[in-house]
Amino acid sequence: MDLHPSLKRDPAGPDYRRFHHHHPGHFYPRLPSGSLQAHYVDRMRLITSLALWLALPLAALASLGCSVGDDLAGAHAPTAHGVSKADGGGGPDGGGGNMAGPAGAGGIDGAQSGAGGSGAAGGLPSGSSGSAGGAGGAGGTGGAPQGLSTPPSCQGNTPGAGHDCGLAGSDDCCAVLPVPGGTFDRMNDPAYPATVSAFRLDKYPITVGRFRAFIAAGQGTQEAPPAPGSGANPYTGGRDTGWKPAWNAHLAADEAALRSALHCDAWEWNTWTQDPGDAERKPIVCVTYYELRAFCAWDGGFLPTEAQFNHAAVGGDEQRPYPWGSDESGVPLRAAYDCMGDGSPAQQCQPSDITEVGLFPLGVGRWGHLDLSGIAYNTTLDSLDDFFPQVPCNDCVRYDEGEGTMNWSGSGVAKLFKLKNDHRAGYPKTARYYFRSGRCARAL
Ligand SMILES: [Ca+2]
């Protein structure tokens, strides 16, 4: 039986501890995923219990049931598509289970119908917790740029690059939210304390629509590389000095080459389409560390350090196990993971499991950011020359010319443990994966 291409490349599955800086291509056996998924087999029961737990108003409950019902209806259909069984645990990102063949777009309908039913469901975040209420407020930033002008990627107000993101389909895809400075324990481990300065972080991963604007501006290739020194993260004690001309060689030769490269996955787990389509609000995947750096430099930002990203994900001194907190009872409603993002049961893996951004407001982080876990890994600035985080860390970054970089958050096919804020994964900087994306950070 044919395996997913990434399984052929890497039978153990690319993951941290598998990629070693000095032995690129060498991977260790993956960790057993245990029986976590056993807790999530009955989505309807979950939905009911979560709704009761939230004590939602009757109207909101009805709305939720409707939208999820659509998800389920949409998700059952794709199971009829050709599905190739890849051994459990062998999933590209630890996902395992069934890896879908090409096509299988049925689940997308489910996701979109879920979003369509969101007019009322938009109230969900404020009903879940105080911090979630902050996310609702953040949606309001769409109408009024905060201080700085709209990032270049959203100035064209095109699909996925305007005000059509999130569950309600009206949030600013380029929303940027402040993250207060503070001291916290990286990976929720007191052995790795860190202090970060206040900064800003994009609410969402970079969408296909925003990356399309980047390409339309003639960017991202050797024909128009970033200016030397641009895109430097200013919260690294001067260690990140921005774009280096030597990196130009890591960019695609021209636009045609870039467009082709963005179809990195032969099984069509790509989100990029040559023409604008149904995936404009999905995260751009198949991008390299260098392309993400170039994008963020053009868009007025820079890649976050892993300390910055983890700070936002754990909610600083709240030390949340997951971005939303510690609750594990309703995770399928908080993040796209384990191939459930399209509403299907666990491990029914389809390209639709790489969902649009912002469809899981119950997974909101302390400061309003969404998708801090799930859908696709967030690439950070840090190089991978040592597994252990740096100590001490005061706006620290591990920054060199190493081949690997550190990534956080798990993906749409990742097991639950990879969504936790103590999980990070190393991948080569120049590699392209359907489960890796990124988001930009910005100065105050
Ligand atoms: Ca699925």
Ordered list of secondary-structure elements with their pairings:
Blueprint: H1 5-9, H2 43-54, H3 58-76, E1 83-85, E2 98-100, H4 106-116, H5 118-121, H6 124-128, H7 130-139, E3 176-179, E4 182-185, E5 193-196, E6 199-202, H8 208-216, H9 255-261, H10 289-298, H11 306-314, E7 377-383, E8 404-408, E9 424-428, E10 436-437, E11 441-442
Parallel strand pairs: 7-10
Antiparallel strand pairs: 1-2, 3-6, 4-5, 6-11, 7-8, 8-9
Helix pairs in contact: 3-4
The structure holds calcium ion (CA).
Calcium ion (CA) binds at residues 107, 339-340, 342, 344, 348-350, 353.
Structural write-up:
By secondary structure, this protein is of the alpha+beta class. The protein has a domain at 162-442: paralog of FGE (formylglycine-generating enzyme) (Alpha-Beta Complex). Helix content is 23%, strand content 10%. The protein has eleven helices and eleven strands. A hairpin with a 7-residue loop joins strand 4 (182-185) and strand 5 (193-196). Helix 3 runs antiparallel to helix 4. The longest helix has 19 residues, at 58-76. The chain is globular, with a radius of gyration of 20 Å. The model is unreliable at 1-147 (pLDDT under 50). The structure holds calcium ion. Residues 107, 339-340, 342, 344, 348-350, 353 line the site of calcium ion.
